[in-house]
Amino acid sequence: MSSNRLKALSIATVAILVVGFALVFFWTPMDADQGFKQKIFYLHVPLAIVALLGFMAGGVEGFRHLRSGDKRHDLNSYVFIHLSVVFGVAVLVTGAIWAKASWGYWWVWEEPTLVSFLIVFLLYCTYYPFRYAIEDRDQQARYASVFAITAGAFVPLNFMAVRMAESVIHPRVFATSEGGLPDSMLFTFLICFVGIGLLWLLLVKVEMAGKQASGQVSRLRRALDPEAHGRTVGGRIAPNMETP
Amino acid sequence: MNEVLPANDAIEYVLGAYMFFLLMVLLYIGILGAKFQRISRDISELTDEVEAGQTGKAPAATPATPATEKADEQAEESRV
User: Fold this and answer.
1) What residues of chain B, 33 to 52, have a C-beta less than 8 Å from chain A?
2) End-to-end CA separation in angstroms for chain A
3) Number of domains chain B contains
4) Domain A3-230 belongs to what topology?
5) Diameter of chain A by CA atoms?
6) pLDDT, tens only, A85-141
7) What span, in angstroms and rounded, lies between the C-alpha atoms of A174 and A171?
8) How near does any CA of chain B get to the CA of A198, in Å?
9) How large is the ipTM?
10) Is B30 domain-assigned?
């Protein structure tokens, strides 16, 4: 991605997030049931949806890597999962804050929505040690892709299972028999969702640019002094755009 | 819907959640910035390495021909 496009994406992301959060606090009506604390919904839920979609996109890229053998798809898969884990941390923390404000507890172990997200998050946390434990680059990429596909398929299955399970206290607001969110809340939610989605995409692009640059540096080092730098190749822990 | 609810219930939790998100994004951008600085430093080192190698190997690697000598002389003259 060119630096101009990256700059445009940055500006769009910041603008949409500022507009979205301004709508949250100055335009969207207060929820009659929860009051002001319901404002966390516009941050917590988009983060959760974007993180889960990112995990699934990581699986799709893993599948494309296995099919084509193209290292770029492995890099995409790694970066998608990495950013989604970071967003997952934000989901858990904002969710815990909302839970404390609404229910008086930071965490409720009986609630399937909370526990299922934690399981998905912990599953993806194992991606790093699993990947870094393998030294051979090709093997590492292949095994990581298999992991990404399997875990990525688990995400929607897990989501469906939670939707079918009986919720204890976690609210359900989309596709409910009561009609879901009012229009003004839905509009604000969609703006925040687009903003958070763009933020994820922006961080993915920046992370990717960093990986590509560090890959080029490694290639240059090897070209200048193959003996000195060749030894370090197998020991690296994260994928980049190196070519052997 | 109640639009006249006071905005003081659990305000610290709401601000806490949004502040956490903001700080996390800033921290992540800081980490990315440090990474890019390291890459930039590596590139400078490599550039120095290449330039040092070129000055050391230049006479042997590119033997001067009458044509290149003439071009060098012209370049030197234009520089002056």
Assistant:
1) 35-36, 39, 42-43, 46, 49-50
2) 23
3) 1
4) Four Helix Bundle (Hemerythrin (Met), subunit A) (1.20.120)
5) 69
6) 999 999 999 999 999 998 888 998 888 888 999 999 999 999 989 998 988 888 999
7) 9
8) 13
9) 0.84
10) yes
